[in-house]
Amino acid sequence: MSHTKVFSFASADDVSRALDKYLEEASRESIARSGKFTVAFSGGSLPATASKYLQHNAKIDFARWHVFFADERCVKHDDADSNYKLVKDELLDKLTAENRVPANQVYAITESLVGDSEAAASDYQQQMAQVLAAGNQAEASPQFDCILLGIGPDGHTCSLFPGFPQLEEKAKWVTHIDNSPKPPPSRITLTLPVVNSAKRVAFVVTGAGKRSTVKDIVDKRDQSLPAARVALPHGPVCWFVDDAAAQDLDVVKPSEFKL
After folding, report:
1. What is the pLDDT of residues 181-227, one digit of tens each?
2. Is the Cα torsion angle 89, 195, 162, 75 positive or negative in sign?
3. pLDDT tens profile 185-197
4. d(CA 212, CA 109)
């Protein structure tokens, strides 16, 4: 049965410190089990928050990381809207030459397909299939070791928006959208079954601007909000938030963060 754990910190800097420790543990555990760590990043403010201390962590074997993207805009890799570029700038390029993620273990959208979001989504699913085992059943979802997510003020996560059909997609691992309510309009995104099959999922939210959305998702479990439908069958969905984002919570109380 899925449950939610909220870890609330005094500042965004403290959130970054905790995420560093959380990812260090997740990486170590996964590498010990399978020899690799498969992680999917969202965009927005998350890469900067996650990377602030992570980039300096010499205890992590980044050469074993396989980096994917929970969603991506259908733009070139050097476009300012690219989540790949964001993660590359905030984390990948800042790692030392002796301990970095190999370029062939960073799975970006195929640039030649950015004009065709449906083809780009299908291609990205094929990239995932080369790395991620989907269990014994052909229809099973792949299992990431960790997916890092943010939320929008409307409760969206990945590029799964309230009221849009992509939220109900169950057959595909990756789907596409060409009428995103948030620009740019064309995107690809992991589907909800893939998110809900991950070993770990962590939401990262800072700032008072999202306090009411956090309450609607975490306390009220408003199922019209995509982020509220993230649920893991085998462990908690973790929330790393600052006190400003958590201040309206009164049902789910923050837990002490310790590894």
Report:
1. 999 999 999 999 999 999 999 999 999 999 999 999 999 999 999 99
2. positive
3. 999 999 999 999 9
4. 33
Q: Largest alpha-carbon pair distance within the chain?
A: 48
- In the sheet with 174-177, reading across from the earlier edge strand, the strands are 71-73, 187-190, 174-177
Distance (Å, rounded) from C-alpha 38 to C-alpha 34? 10
Rg, C-alpha atoms of the chain: 17
The model's pTM is: 0.96
Our CA angle for 234, 198, 228, nearest 5°, is 80
Phi, psi of 236 (to 5 degrees): -80, 150
Q: Which distant-in-sequence residues (6+ apart) come within 8 Å of 258 by Cβ?
A: none
Q: What are phi and psi of 188, to 5 degrees?
A: -120, 155
Q: H or E segment at 73?
A: strand 71-73
- Rounded Cα distance between 227 and 156, Å, is 6
Q: What is the dihedral of CA 223, 229, 232, 236, to 10 degrees?
A: -70
Please name the residue that has the structure tokens 């099959």.
197
Contact 141, 197 (CB under 8 A): yes
Distance of alpha carbon 83 from alpha carbon 157, whole angstroms: 14
Cα gap 212→153, rounded to integer Å: 8
What one-character DSSP code corresponds to residue 157? B
- CA-nearest of 220, 225, 2, 175 to 74 is 175
* Structure tokens belonging to residue 159: 């590029």
